[in-house]
Structures are given as C-alpha cells and as structure tokens.
C-alpha cells in the first residue's frame, strides 16, 4: 500500500490573519477573500493554512467562497508559534524597492525586530512602516514562518544610542574597519542588534558617537564594499550562524 499524501498538501494557500486564531468559524474579506476565491479558485472543502503571530499555524477548510468573502472552519492547530532569536536589525531607511527587499530578508532570516534609524545621510526620513510590515507578512506567508518581526517607529541615531537597553550588544558595520564579524559575534553571545548605515555610510561624528557607546562593537564584513541592504543581510546571516538558530 502506497504512502498517504501529506495533509494539508504543500500547495495549500497560506495566509496571515491579524487576530488570534482558535478552532471555529472564520470569515475573510477584501484582498484575502479575492486571492482565495478568484486567484486560487477555492471551493468548499479546500484546505487553507493560517497563522496569526500569536498562537501558531492552523488548518482551515473552506465552507463558502464568494467574491467578497470566504468562510472557513478552523479545525486544528498544526504548529505552535516558533521561537525567535533575540536579534534586532537597526538600519537606515533606503529607497523604495531596496528597503522592501531588506524587510523581506529580515523576516526570512529570523530577525525579531526591525528598527529604522535616521542618520545624517539617510535619504528617507519617514519610512512607511505599514509597507514594511506588509513586505514581512508576504515573506512569512511564502517561507513558512509563524512569527513576524516587529517594526519600530523610525528613530534618530542620537536617540537610539541614548536609549539603548543595557545588556544588548550593538554590532555596527563600520566601513573603516573593525573586528571580523563572526569572531566578534561568537565572543558576545546573548541579546544583540546589528546597526547598518545609509548608502553614504555614517559620517565621522556619528561613527565617533557609536564607537564611544559602551555596548557598541565595530565589525567588518570582509574586503568587499557592500550595498547597505546586502550588508544587512550578510551581517544577520553571520550572527545567525555564529550565535543564533542555524546550528
């Protein structure tokens, strides 16, 4: 007798729901209903996986699919909410498109919190945090995450340093040089954050202020010049490998 097919199938649509899930009836409207009914052509009995960033991932079965709303019967919890490494990404806002990519990768790589940091050379003073959250939701839906990074309001660099929490290491990518990233991160386990500057880098006054902070550690990401969003993804990856949940 052949093996039973996986249930729900890997092709099952997966959606984030901005409310705590529990077993019972659930109604979806707007874009999510359109996606299920029109794009995926869902019909009664079809499975949908749902997650809420609180209780985990659940299985729902379509009971009614209309143009404006879709009704589901949420039947069982498939997974609890995942544990998230205690890593923040503090990054200067970038131009649209590049910052969207950064938010997407921050979610995929397992960052706990994204903090937009305004510096002297920042090209965007007021990032659209709702848009960043939307990018993270879409990334989480696609890559199977059950937790979403928190998105903080933008903060100016002096205020970030002034209010920095005690006990959290601050690794900042310093284009003028620093400790090798992997070694620095392995030597300082525990809660951490990565600070990435804007396209033009930190100015001299900012770099001096960061270096003077007792919890700041300048790091280097190697001999190549990286764009800001690439440096962010690289630094997060190094931290995850050295001190996070990759091994």
Structural overview:
The protein is an alpha/beta fold and 247 residues long. It folds into 2 domains: 14-79, Hypothetical PUA domain-like, domain 1 (Ribosomal Protein L25, Chain P), CATH 2.40.240.20; 87-243, Alpha/beta knot (3-Layer(aba) Sandwich), CATH 3.40.1280. The protein contains 7 helices and 13 strands. The chain has helices spanning 30-39, 98-109, 129-143, 157-162, 181-187, 204-212, 228-243, and strands spanning 14-16, 24-29, 47-51, 57-65, 69-79, 87-91, 113-118, 150-151, 155-156, 169-173, 179-180, 192-196, 216-220. Strand 6 (87-91), helix 2 and strand 7 (113-118) form a beta-alpha-beta unit. It is elongated and about 60 Å long.
By CATH, the topology of the largest domain is Alpha/beta knot
User: Judging by the overall fold, what is the CATH architecture of the largest domain?
Assistant: 3-Layer(aba) Sandwich
Strand content: 25-35%
Looking at the structure, what is the overall shape? Answer: elongated
- Uncertain spans, ≥5 residues at pLDDT below 50? none
Please report the number of helical segments: 7
CATH homology superfamily name of the largest domain? SPOUT methyltransferase, trefoil knot domain
């Amino acid at each position: 007798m052949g093996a039973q097919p996986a249930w729900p199938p890997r092709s099952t649509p997966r959606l984030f729901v901005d409310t705590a899930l529990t077993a019972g009836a659930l109604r979806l409207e707007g874009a999510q209903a359109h996606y299920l009914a029109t794009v995926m052509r869902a019909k009664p009995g079809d499975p949908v996986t749902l997650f809420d960033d609180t209780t985990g991932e659940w299985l729902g079965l379509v009971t009614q699919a209309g143009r404006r709303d879709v009704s589901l019967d949420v039947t069982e919890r498939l997974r609890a909410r995942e544990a998230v490494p205690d890593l923040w990404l503090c990054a200067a806002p970038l131009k649209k498109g590049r910052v969207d990519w950064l938010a997407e990768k921050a979610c995929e790589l397992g960052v706990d919190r994204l903090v937009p940091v305004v510096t002297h050379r920042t090209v965007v003073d007021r990032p659209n945090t709702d848009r960043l959250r939307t990018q993270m939701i879409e990334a989480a839906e696609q890559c199977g995450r059950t937790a979403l990074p928190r998105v903080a309001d933008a903060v100016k660099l002096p205020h970030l340093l002034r209010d920095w929490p005690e006990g959290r290491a601050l690794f900042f990518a310093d284009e003028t040089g620093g400790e090798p990233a992997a070694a620095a991160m392995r030597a300082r386990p525990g809660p951490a954050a990565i600070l990435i500057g804007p396209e033009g880098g930190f100015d001299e006054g900012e770099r001096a202020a960061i270096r003077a902070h007792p919890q700041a550690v300048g790091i280097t990401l190697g001999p190549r010049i990286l764009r800001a969003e690439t440096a962010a993804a690289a630094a997060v990856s190094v931290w995850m490998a050295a001190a996070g949940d990759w091994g």
